[in-house]
Each structure stands twice: as structure tokens, then as C-alpha cells.
Design goal:
434 Repressor (Amino-terminal Domain); 14 strands
Length: about 600
């Protein structure tokens, strides 16, 4: 039996042209496990959990490579109507007709094959069911939108972005359980010992750990928080908190000193520098500082002057290049990005991060305006506030040397956050990026048939130039899609509407700058095209979500670049290339893939209801 099993498994591997490493990735297991199976030293029990994982991996890998028909021919599978039927036949073929055991591990959901309560959303749902709480009831009890609770339960959002909510949620659930006399049921659900149940503080700690330790990673709160910030900033540049006269003292602007000392000296130098940049109408600034930021944030009065003068710079047309002082801390990067978000609508901010790591002995500051002045300082770290020395140079020769210094730093930096126009995918269009995950709130323009686009634009009364603009943009997006799926993959994640929303004309179309919605027939045409693309391209997969992950935001995620596209004014795309940022977003996309990706047959059935 072992030799037959190994021979048949070898036939499948040859059919798929897959290595043990690639197969282990799909099976989500260690490569050594596959090696043991192939060598015959560890054959999973027919019908057992290991055999089912192996069969699922064979099915998913075959589906991924678009070879289901070939596999079905090999294993003589006549019923190809569902994934379950094909998996049953794979199991029977592998074990050469041996009776398949039907026993499943305790606690396994026989319908989905998943072990329940592995992730936070499933655990929260189980406790809510135990206490009789709906999303609406829990949301009202916590003064939170019920849709937020729904996203928790669906795995689209993580509670770790809001520590206070984590505490409040756990406390509310525990109190309700104790009031209803269901502590014993809670103990059975969570494995909580009886002695722990009797003490509220210990019970709280146990429930807290049980609920939140199921989170698959720490990057989700960062992704969610950053995307929410980008989605919420205003189309209008923030109004300066102070007038120019209040922010830039006229006496400071007239100073001619070439040196300043200490924190107060640096603050005076910065006011003189930025105030005169605004007055002179200078068009370019280069900024870098890796010293402690107390000089800027510790004094609220100075902070207001700094913010006001920066806003005056961008509103008067000054382009600002910033090399941020970030290392490998996601919080540092988030703060660096968020602090500058109010100025992003200007389109005049270019943010970079330096690839070389800073030392710990000295700190460097350089604020340069070519053709006017430069503030520069190199000081002992930690001693800047009292003994820091800062030059204020206006000599053209020295300014040239400072600019060469800064441009050398810039050559060792990568863009942290690049602001593009709405229609520009920037780095993601390049050929060396072969795979892409798209998370959005509706079906994409790239997969929308031209006849659907023209139907919608004609209903809206669009002229020929607007029609041509949208069609050209669609072709560009389709080229990007096809380039990815021919070399790697493109997975799209979006919610599917209910009939009420669809027939009430509330389903938004992905047509830039418009508020157009689908008719039911237009939506059916788009769905039909998605099914056709999925059949034509092995690397393309549409993954239905239970609801939208982010409102008015589209995410394009690769391992080398991430684009956050705003779907409402201001219509901009913010592109990130920092490796740690990309890894955080990729981990979020992988979590969605694990939870919501479907094989082609299952996906086709879920989409056909709209035809």
C-alpha cells in the first residue's frame, strides 16, 4: 500500500511540476513533512486530519496551476461539479479504493473543515453567541458602530489597534456572562479552570488572553490605523494655527547671526529660516534631522509656530523633501507619515527614509534652502538641548557644499511616502513586481468590460473625451493586471452586494472621479467577465469578502511596494516602498487570503447568483 501511495503521489507532483518546497507552502506545513510522506516513512491515515490536509493541498495546488481538468482525468473523477467531490475522489484514488474513515478531530466544523476559535473573530463570535449578543447590541453597549464589531468577527479588522476597546470589550463580556450565570459554559468554551472562574480579576486575565492571543500577527493594527488616517484626511490643507506675524517674529527674521546654541537657539534659527523662506518665496526645501525631537514638540507655543510656517511654505508653492529619521520600528514610520499627512494634499511633499542606520554618538540636523540659507548642526547625542551648536550659513559656496552633502544622503535613501495622482500606480507598474493583492470596496475597473463602462458613461451623459479618458485608463489597469497574472498572481478582494443594494442602485463603480453605480445588468456583465478571467488565467483570483475592509480606499499590495488609493477627494495615491511597511501590508493580505480565498469552482458558484 505504501509503494502504491508513493507512486500515485509522485504522479501528481509530476503532473503539477511542483517541488516539495512549493507544495509545502500551499499545504502550509513544514517541507520535512512532505519529504517524510514522499519517502514512505510517514503515510497519513486514510481519512484522517493529515490525509485531508494533504488532499486539500493537492486540490489547491492543482487549482492554482489551472490543471484541475488534467488531474480529474488522471484520477478518473467524473463528478467535477464541486471542490468537495473532487477532493473525495483524490482521497479514494490515493488510497486505491481503501475505505475512507469519516472520523474528524474533535471540535472540527464538518461543513467547512476548519477548527473553530483559531482567530479572534471566531472567538469573539463564540462568546457573543454564548451571551446572546448581536453586533447591534454589543455595539450600542460599547458606544461603537455595529459594523466595526462585524469587521472584528469577519477578520477584516484587529482589536489591537485600540487597547482601551480591548479592555472594555473583555470586561463587558465577562460581566454579562457572570450576570447570566454562564461562567461554567465560559470555562468549557475557553478551557478556563474552575478556580480561575471564581475570581473576577483572574477570570478577566484568562478571557483577555484567550480572546486576543489568537491574533495572527502584530502588523494588522498598524496597517488599519495608517490606512484609516490616510482615508480621513481632508481635501483642504489644514489652516495654520497662527498668522504669519504671530509665527515669525519680525526681529528674529532680521537677525544676522551665523551661530545659535541650545534648544532655544535652534528654535530661533528655525523661525528665522522658515519665515524668510516664506517671505522670499523660495521654491525648495531639504530637511533632515536625527536628533531628539524635544526641540520641536516639547514647547506647544513653538510647535504651533513650526506647524504654521510649514503650512505657509507649501501653500506658497515651496517643494519640501524630507529624509525621515526612521529605523525598523513601524510606530516610528507611522508617526513620520501621519505627522506630514495634513500637507499631502499640496502634492509638494517628498518623504524618504535613509537605508543606512544612524549612529548613537552624534546627531545631525540640516535644514537647507538652496540659494538662501542652511541650518546645520552635528552634536553629541543627548546634549543638544543645552550645548548644541548650529550654524546658519548664507554664503553661496557653503550652500553648495551643504547641498552636495544632502544629495549624497538622498542617494542612500528610498521614498517612504510618495504622493501620486489618482491614476498613477507608480512603482507597482514596473515589471520586477510580478504579484499583487488588491483590496477594495467594489469590483475593479481593470476587470470591467468596455460595454459596461460605456453603458454607465452614456447614462451619465459623458462626452467623448471623458469616455476616451476612462477607456484609456481601463486599458492601462488591464495591462497591469495581465502583466502580473502572466508572471505571478493577482488576487482581488472585494465585498459582493446584497440584492437590496444592487436593485436600489447603491453599488458603486470603480470609475475615477465619479459617483456612478451599477444597474443589475451591468453588474452581471462585470461578474461574467471576472468568471471568464479566472478561467483564462491561473494567476487571477477574485476573493469575495463579507463586507468592505476600508471605506473609500483601495490597497494595492506587493512585496516591494504598496499603494493606498483614495477613492474620494483628494484623489491621490500614496506609495510606500520601505521593506518593513511592505511586509506589514503583505501580512495583512496573507491573512485575508488564508481566510477568504476560494478555489475556482467555489468562487464561480458564489458569483453565478448575480447572472
Amino acid at each position: 500500500m505504501i509503494d502504491i501511495f508513493r507512486e500515485k503521489l509522485s504522479q501528481i507532483f509530476a503532473l503539477l511540476e511542483v517541488t516539495s518546497t512549493e507544495f509545502a507552502r500551499v499545504a502550509r506545513c513544514d517541507k520535512s513533512n512532505i519529504s517524510h510522506i514522499m519517502s514512505g516513512t510517514r503515510i497519513p491515515k486514510n481519512g484522517g486530519a493529515g490525509a485531508r490536509r494533504l488532499v486539500s493541498a493537492i486540490y489547491l495546488c492543482t487549482d492554482e496551476k489551472n490543471r484541475l481538468d488534467t488531474l480529474c482525468t488522471l484520477i478518473a473523477c467524473e463528478d467535477r461539479t464541486s471542490a468537495d467531490r473532487i477532493k473525495e475522489r483524490i482521497m479514494a484514488w490515493l488510497y486505491d479504493g481503501e475505505h475512507t474513515a469519516v472520523n474528524r478531530p474533535a471540535g472540527q466544523n464538518t461543513k467547512t473543515g476548519k477548527i473553530p476559535y483559531r482567530v479572534f473573530g471566531e472567538r469573539l463570535g463564540a462568546v457573543m453567541e454564548l451571551t446572546g449578543l448581536s453586533n447591534i447590541r454589543l455595539g450600542r453597549s460599547m458606544n461603537t458602530d455595529p459594523s466595526y464589531i462585524s469587521r472584528f468577527r469577519n477578520g477584516l479588522r484587529s482589536p489591537k489597534a485600540n487597547p482601551k476597546m480591548m479592555n472594555d470589550l473583555c470586561s463587558l463580556l465577562l460581566d454579562r456572562i457572570r450576570e447570566q450565570g454562564k461562567t461554567a459554559a465560559l470555562g468549557k468554551l475557553t478551557g478556563m479552570p474552575a478556580e480561575t472562574l471564581s475570581d473576577r480579576e483572574n477570570a478577566f486575565d484568562w478571557l483577555y488572553c484567550w480572546l486576543f492571543s489568537a491574533e495572527s500577527g502584530d502588523s494588522a493594527p498598524f496597517v488599519e490605523g495608517l490606512v484609516d488616517r490616510i482615508g480621513s484626511f481632508s481635501a483642504e490643507i489644514k489652516k495654520p494655527p497662527l498668522s504669519f506675524e504671530e509665527a515669525a517674529d519680525s526681529e528674529i527674521l532680521k537677525e544676522s547671526s551665523s551661530a545659535y546654541t541650545g534648544i532655544e537657539g535652534l528654535q530661533r534659527a528655525v523661525i528665522r529660516f522658515l519665515g524668510n523662506v516664506v517671505r522670499r518665496g523660495e521654491k525648495e526645501l531639504f530637511l533632515y534631522s536625527d536628533q531628539n525631537m524635544d526641540w520641536m514638540v516639547s514647547d506647544p507655543a513653538f510647535r504651533a509656530k513650526w506647524v504654521s510656517l510649514m503650512i505657509f511654505c507649501v501653500t506658497s508653492g515651496t517643494r519640501i523633501t524630507v529624509v525621515h529619521n526612521v529605523n525598523r520600528d513601524l510606530l516610528e514610520m507611522e508617526q513620520a507619515i501621519v505627522n506630514w499627512l495634513p500637507l499631502y494634499p499640496s502634492g509638494r511633499i517628498r518623504a524618504y527614509w535613509c537605508r543606512t542606520r544612524r549612529g548613537e554618538r552624534f546627531s545631525t540636523t540640516m535644514f537647507l534652502c538652496p540659494g538662501y540659507a542652511c541650518i546645520s548642526g552635528c552634536n553629541v547625542s543627548g546634549a543638544e538641548n543645552k550645548n548644541g551648536l548650529y550654524r546658519f550659513d548664507i554664503d553661496p559656496a557653503l550652500l553648495g557644499a551643504h547641498e552636495a552633502f544632502y544629495r549624497e544622503l538622498l542617494s542612500r535613501s528610498g521614498e517612504l511616502a510618495a504622493v501620486h495622482s489618482f491614476e498613477d500606480a507608480g512603482r507597482l507598474e514596473e515589471e520586477d513586481i510580478s504579484s499583487l493583492s488588491v483590496i477594495t470596496n467594489t469590483l475593479s475597473l481593470a476587470t470591467m468590460p468596455e460595454r459596461v463602462i460605456l453603458s454607465a458613461l452614456e447614462r451619465a451623459g459623458a462626452d467623448e473625451s471623458e469616455k476616451n479618458r476612462i477607456l484609456d485608463l481601463k486599458k492601462k489597469h488591464l495591462c497591469i493586471l495581465e502583466s502580473k497574472i502572466k508572471k505571478g498572481f493577482l488576487h482581488e478582494y472585494a465585498p459582493l452586494p446584497d440584492d437590496e443594494a444592487l436593485f436600489a442602485d447603491r453599488v458603486q463603480m470603480d470609475i475615477p472621479g465619479s459617483s456612478l453605480t451599477y444597474t443589475p445588468s451591468e453588474y452581471a456583465g462585470h461578474i461574467q467577465n471576472i468568471i471568464a478571467l479566472s478561467k483564462r488565467y491561473a494567476g487571477y483570483r477574485f476573493c469575495p469578502l463579507p463586507e468592505e475592509a476600508f471605506g473609500d480606499i483601495k490597497l494595492l499590495i506587493s512585496d516591494r511596494a504598496v499603494a493606498v488609493v483614495r477613492l474620494r477627494a483628494p484623489y491621490v495615491t500614496i506609495l510606500f516602498e520601505h521593506p518593513d511597511l511592505c511586509r506589514a501590508f503583505a501580512a495583512y493580505a496573507e491573512r485575508l487570503e488564508e481566510q477568504y480565498r476560494q478555489d475556482r469552482l467555489t468562487m464561480k458558484k458564489s458569483l453565478e447568483r448575480y447572472l
